[in-house]
Fold:
Amino acid sequence: MISFEEVMKQSPRQLDKNQLEAVFCDRNCVVSAGAGSGKTTVLSYRFLRLVLEQKADCDQILTLTFTRKAAREMRERIHRQLLTFSSDPHIGMQLTKFPDATIATLDSFCSTILRCDSTSYGIAGDFAIDDEENKKSAIRCANALLEERSFSEGAKILSELYSPDNLVENMLVRLVSQHYYLPKKVEANLSDRLVASVREQFYDLLGSFTSLLERYAAFASAPKTLLSVRTIAQTLLEKIGEGLNDKEMFELLSSNYLIFRKPGAGKGEDFEFLRETTDEYRTLRSKLCVALSVVLHQDRLASVIGFVREYVEAYQAEKRKTGILTFSDVSSLAVEILKENLPLRAYFKSKYRYIMIDEFQDNNEQQKELLYLLAEREDLNSDGIPDSSSLKADKLFFVGDEKQSIYRFRGADVRVFKHLSQELESVGGKALSLDTNYRSEPALIELFNRMFPSVMQNEGEPYEADFTSLGFRDPTEGITPTLSMLVKPFKKDDPSNSQGGDEDKDDEEEENAAAADAEAIAVARLMVRMLTTDEYLIPSKDGPRRPKPSDMALLMRTTGNQLSFEKAFRKYSIPYTLQAARSLMLEAPANDLYAMLQLTLYPNDKLSYMSALRSPFCNISDEGVYSALVHYDGCLQPFTEGPELDEEDTLRYRGCCSFFGHLCKKVETGKLSEIVQFLWYESGYYLSLVSKPEYQMYLEHFSFLHRLAQIKEEQAMSLSQFLDFIRDNLGQNERLDDLDVLKEQGEGVQIMTVHKSKGLEFPIVFLGNSGSVGRGHGNSISVFAGEMLPSFMSSSYYATATKIEEIQNAALLFEEDDEKLFELAELKRLLYVALTRAETHLVVSGYFTSTNRNVSGDKPDNNLLLLCCRALGIDINEPELEEGMVRSFCIEDIEERSLYSSMTSDASTAMTEAARWYGSPAKDPDLRPLRYAATSLYDEEGNQAESGFAEQLPLFASDSLLEEVKQETFSVTADFGTFVHGLCEAMVLKQQVEDEFAFMTQRLYHLLTAKQRKVLLADALVLCANFLESDIYKHHVEPNHPRCEVKFFSAALHEGREVVVEGSIDLLVETDDELLIIDFKTDRYRAPERHRAQLDLYMQAVERMYAKPVRSCVTYLRSCGGEVWWDSRKKYTYK
Structure:
């Protein structure tokens, strides 16, 4: 049998000393693995060692990751390593067990635990996880309670304190999403417990306050400042000693006549003591006012808690009813089950000999508890969560990096990972470190080693990350790494740093563009320089080369200024790929498509008609628009014959009239996605964008608009509802959630958030909009003695002699750590993650405003730009600097009008190129289409393949009915198949179907009588039930997260040409190690080979998109079972 040492000798990659120590560690261990340190390699080699040394079989090692992508990569890497030595008998045996190895996300594993005992918590075993659907459910439950006639007192209080939108989405939905996940309930006597806790706090605070007053009361009688403070202290002590009730005490402490300022000049012990304790006096007084306010408002607190309890119960009942849970629900329930179900805990403890978990810095206390329950010694059954001394001594292997913990908004708590090393070391565990970065060039690492000790400097706070110097590899020959800073200083009277300009400014004087636009232009110009010169070479296997746009990434903390960068990239013809289509509703394509679609339903919308006339759909002159509108005022019908136009406008107008007629017919029968596609391509709109380089960046907008139409189509939206949605979002610079588009490859500069870039690497990284201070959630929810609760009070006190502070909640009393400090600590880690994505070159850009410079220095720096400038010693007012590899440039002002002028070559060059084109001989045009539907492209091939035996399947009453109503203009059988598909997909996705006939095409619906529709519906439901009861559904679909009607575009060879094929996958299921494509058929005959070529195309496209093995099959709903599976990476088929 081959040994692990022999495997290591044959491995092309040798591990360093720290990596080897981690791989060979056989104690509970915490490995701190910095960016680019090879942690995935360590995890995979440790898995291999445990197997080769026969310490465990493949299916006895639990390997958990943070993302499905990481789980997939881990599984593939380990599998490849095992396959390399498959001739070894022991490894051959392990390969047979590898399909049962649990290499999954923590969420997926928690789902496995929950399915074992979900019924004990009132949840069906076929539950689904959908955070977005739960948010909608939470909104519905909140609105239902708030709209009840018997408006509760708690609802009235909340309605007074919050605006309607803020009450529901920013408070109630956040409350149940972040705190009251299953099975947590609102305590029966929560109000009494909280008031008692406040009372206890009050007396503790009053004791400290009284002690301070006694010291003040002993001050000398001079000078005047000390005398004034002494008088205030004596007055307060006297009043407090009178035994005032709560209301009287609040009136005393909240008044403005017992307040003093912190003294400036003055000597002596009393003066020094007063200076040191003034802030403490103010804080104690504020906290006493809040505590007393809670006591005085305890009836309001009880009412609000009562409403919250009612809301939580309604929301959780809806979850149990629908079986749709959140990831937090699943994690919480998994821990609860392992705590309470001792036999199940024993089963999982014995099932897994070792547990390895990656990216643990992005987890929290609850997830640590889950792992402790699984790692408990087998001879123990602790009540509750076992402590570290009760763990099996060699079972746990944690990998993480506190410097990369950036998911607080998802519940991550860096304190857990930081404390873990100390916790395990205290009982014989080990803490190791992987501190060599193999990703970035050594010069960059040396720069990080200079920057981050100051950036991450702290006083030992548990929420702060500690930075230790990173090691580095050998430099790449011929490569000179750089860090470029593009900084726009703040100028007090500069209108580019404000919302508007100077009203007294001379109209003749050119206005400067906004600072965000100036930054974007500076970034675009530097990108052009990188692409066209040898100043910023990057490594390649053939030696140093110039970068391509796809070698660059633009990362941002937030995407608020993304539109400025998109405009700049378009101006300089820099291709880019979006991860979030933030500007989708701001740009021309969405407005143009909306205008044309609006006119098909609402022809009297004059504004839309005017927009359509000027858009590329019609594109007539201003005079032509005026003439067309005059004609329109007389008939109120768009695109009708009659307006007086010149020859060129007439040609364009008539073409648009003809297309508009076809569009109106398409709207009658087409799906939303088909209508959008028809409008984009068949109108010539696509060609109008392609013909102009400065407009080609809009081409990607179609992918997002088409995907948006698909999503709304899946939600059974009509065209009018779709237009309502677009209308509400037009002009909004907001990111549309869940607008994911499948892309075979990312072309151009990748634009994404820093969070999205986690785990990725790029030769060149731009950190843009780095002066952004982000935006918080406000104070809609506060922590109150360990409970999250909404505001419930409405009182105030004097913070100074003139400033009044509002009191709405008890946050000041119970938030042990300042929320702002947590955010600022994560900001430093965000900077570390952003900069360590870079392999060769880094660029940080941003601008300073009146609010992000921290001039006084009395607060922590609150933006990435300021952190970088401080660490690099750059003057934020005079940022020009050149020091070694660091070059800092000042972003210059640009004129507003320059943003709208095209960046093109001179006119003579353009004319020369045009003359060459027009002078070349004309070629015979190829009029064959370039885009095909997959079903039409492979239909003929499928019929030829179907030459053998086809098995007849059971017949239904609807078969003869459809034969009776057969039409020449369309296929009623195909429409019936569409109807079944829609119903089946809704059931697979566990959607609530209020009207089954909404899935039936309008033409089929109107063709049938009510009785005939019922016959078709009954048969359709039977076909759906066949699938939901089948083995393929129970084994492959139900345990995973299926997606329905996944549309994509793919390149394919057809008739000797490369064409674009559009496909629609009925059901796409992603597991940890593969993707499954399942194609529904309602055919009367079973002939899967007929669809083989079509599914081969689907598999090729999906494998390119996901870089993951794909299998596919056809399942016949008339008789599910016996499916033939095709594998994208194998030539054979199997059942």
In short: Residues 588-729 form a domain with the PCRA; domain 4 fold (CATH 1.10.486.10).
